[in-house]
Each structure stands twice: as structure tokens, then as C-alpha cells.
Amino acid sequence: MIDYSPAQNPVQITFQDDHVLVANKPAGLLSVPGRLKEHYDSLWSRLVVDFPDIQVVHRLDMSTSGLMLFALTKDAERHIKKQFQYRLTHKVYYARVWGDVEQDEGLIDLPLICDWPNRPRQKVCYENGKPSQTHYQVVKREAQTTLVRLLPITGRSHQLRVHMMALGHPIIGDEFYAHPEAQVMTNRLELHSTELSFYHPRNNELTTLFVACDFYKEAKEEILQHFTADKVLPDYKLLKST
Length: 242
Description:
Belongs to the pseudouridine synthase RluA family. By secondary structure, the protein is of the alpha+beta class. The chain has a single domain, classed as 2-Layer Sandwich (Pseudouridine synthase), CATH 3.30.2350.10. The chain is about 15% helix and about 30% strand. Strand 7 (about 110-115) and strand 8 (about 120-125) form a beta hairpin.
């Protein structure tokens, strides 16, 4: 990691109660501390000052912005981690990608594995890769780029970035997978976790949160035609039976 100097803006907390906390992670900030002392600054390390019992239940890439869910109790941590394990959570991302995406929507189904000689890069591998699926939907076609909405069914490392690259449309600003022309179009990776749904550990009720992204100001909270939570989330009874 080179020149790690994230902006020192206050953390934006979008939801908080006695059980969970959801924050809007800025691009360029680690989700959790890195191995080196100079990489301690992270969303978790900033939050733990005021919430000493806060627990990490999932992560976002350093370059990705958007909603991150944390547990504030051990019971909530167990509850939410089990939801991620059994894919009972629902996340929607916005991304701006290179080129004109031909199909209005589709499913990318490509197995992924770590590219060990070039880690942290990942790659498509049909022999040893883990199953990985991403739904996509075109939101807006622009002069050189396309704004898309992405729904990851699985949660592999760099999944959205590699899948869009494999489709021929790398996310602009991507330092790992975009070609030089797409890299220099913007000063950040234009990938943002905008919607998050989960079953609240207090009462098992479906909770949906939304935060707009800085590179698409028109994004508004809405019931998505193709990606509504009730279409993609298994019933919570499945979790209780496992």
C-alpha cells in the first residue's frame, strides 16, 4: 500500500441503536487496521474510540465507499455474521464503468480465485475458482461510461471489480483492473455501497438503509424494480433452521 493518507473527515454514522451501527465509509480509508503501524487508521479504529465494544462483521475494499454494518454486542455479532454466512443480507452498489454496457441487465457468473503472484489481485479461474455471481442493471448510459447498479449474490474479494472487468467494462478509477485511460478519468474508484438490507438482531425484522454516493448525486432511495430485497433475500426462517 503506497502513500496511505486518508482524509481526516468525521465519520458519518447513518444508523445506530443499542445493537448495531452503520457508517458511510469514505473511499481511501481501510475498513480495519492493516498490518503496519502506519495503516492503523481505519473506519473501525475511528469508531472504536466512542464505541469500545464495536465488532466488525464484514468489510469493504479500501477504495470502495459506502455502507458498512457493525455489531455493538456479541449477540448481534453472532446474529449478523450468520446472516452473511448464509447470504441473508442484501447489498446494492453503484458503479461507473468504462464503455457502453450492451445489455440492460444480466448475471455475471464467473468463479474467482486469488492471483497469488499479483495479490491482492483476483482472477477468473474455471478450475479452482470459487463460485461467484453478480447481477447488474444499467442505470444511465453516458458519453464514454455507463452507470450501473450491482447486486453481488456472493461476496468474494474484489468480486464486483473483477466481474465488470471480465465483462469488458472495468470500473473507472480502478488501480488494479482498469486500463490507463479508465484509471485517469477520476481520482477515486467509482464504486459505492449504496443500499444495505439485513435482519435486525433485536427482532429479526428486515431493515433497509440507503446512502447516496458522491459520483452520482441523482441516486435516491427507492424500491428498485429488479433488486428489491424481498426478491433476493431468503426468509429468515432458513437461518434459524441451520
